[in-house]
Specification:
alpha+beta; binds flavin-adenine dinucleotide; globular
Length: 285
């Protein structure tokens, strides 16, 4: 299907991009990898009068790793994350999750900022951002601000971004090396959006008990979830088979997914229990 007609701009700086969006407030859309926006244009789900292509903003294509954590520029692509050897140590949970995003061709184009702004409730990166208490850096007409990931996603395909704002980066807090983690998802076919997935981690204390547990889930609500009841259950406990089973049951009890064309709510509720159990087992590696 042909795209609707639109004006096109390709700014060379963040301030220029923001000025273009502000001048066409509500009528303009940023373009990153195009993997979600172009189909939305084709299906007439979006019909902006101006497309602001971000591809010349090289400053947004950087991955920065330091003692504070990992900073992913908004134009960093899935492929960049998978190819960056530093990230395997600096944020192994991120790398594992991104390996599940879409298909090879889409991973070559899709970006961090595009995924966050698109805010699909089953997308892996928003889930990682919420589980890891990341912050989203944005720039707009009124200047720069940061938004906690938990406050950034406000509903299905909806975020706290204002019409004149673009995402500039995602900051994931430092990942202590011995941290235990698991990412497990279930999709009908590899590369499809997940029916559900969980990302979790904890730091094992000297007696091997879980500390600082974080458990997140995607595909179960209109936005990524933190399963705080499961986190509380795991805190200070040895993660043996009995605890994994209890955590799975607690995860199922903590969610209330609705029926849709892909699966019933009851199926997804059962599924997340199994996924949490498996992710805790994976964390024992
Ligand atoms: C067949 C298929 C399967 C897929 N499977 C998965 C999957 O399993 N998991 C998954 O997570 N994703 C999946 N995707 C989506 C893919 O990861 C997209 O790349 C991603 O959601 C959007 O990124 P993009 O860079 O292509 O953004 P675009 O398509 O260019 O933009 C998407 C939206 O974000 C906005 N936007 C883009 N960049 C910015 C920015 N910096 N600031 C503000 N707004 C911005 C655009 O205006 C638009 O509204 C799939 C896509 C397809 C086509």
């Amino acid at each position: 299907m042909k795209l609707p007609a639109f004006e096109y701009a390709c700014p060379t700086s963040v301030s220029e991009a923001v000025a273009l969006l502000a001048a066409h407030a509500g009528e303009a859309k940023a373009l990153a990898g195009g993997q979600s926006l172009v189909p939305m244009l084709a299906f007439r789900v979006a019909a902006p009068t101006l497309i602001v292509d971000l591809r010349k903003l090289g400053e947004l294509r950087r991955i920065h790793v330091d003692d504070d954590g990992v900073r992913l520029g908004a134009m960093v692509r899935w492929r960049d994350i998978l190819d960056d050897a530093r990230l395997k140590a600096a944020h192994p949970l991120l790398v594992e999750a991104v390996g599940h995003v879409a298909h090879y061709q889409i991973r070559n184009r899709g970006t961090v900022g595009g995924s966050l702004a698109h805010a699909d409730p089953a997308a892996e990166l928003p889930g990682i951002a919420v589980t890891c208490e990341a912050t989203v850096a944005v720039a707009g007409k009124a200047g720069a601000r940061t938004i906690k990931a938990a406050e950034f996603f406000t509903g299905t395909l909806t975020t706290a971004l204002k019409p004149d704002e673009i995402i500039t980066a995602l900051h994931l807090p430092r990942w202590p090396a011995p941290r235990r983690f698991g990412f497990v998802e279930f999709a009908r076919r590899r590369g499809d959006f997940a029916l559900a997935a969980t990302s979790l981690f904890y730091d094992a204390d000297t007696s091997g008990r879980a500390r600082n547990a974080r458990v997140g889930a995607i595909g179960l609500a209109d936005r990524p979830l933190r399963l705080t009841a499961v986190e509380a259950l795991l805190e200070g406990k040895a993660i043996d088979a009995a605890m994994m089973e209890k955590a799975g049951a607690a995860a199922s009890a903590a969610v209330d997914p609705v029926d849709d064309i892909h699966a019933s709510g009851a199926y997804r509720r059962a599924l997340i229990g199994t996924l949490v159990e498996r992710a805790l087992a994976a964390a024992q590696r």
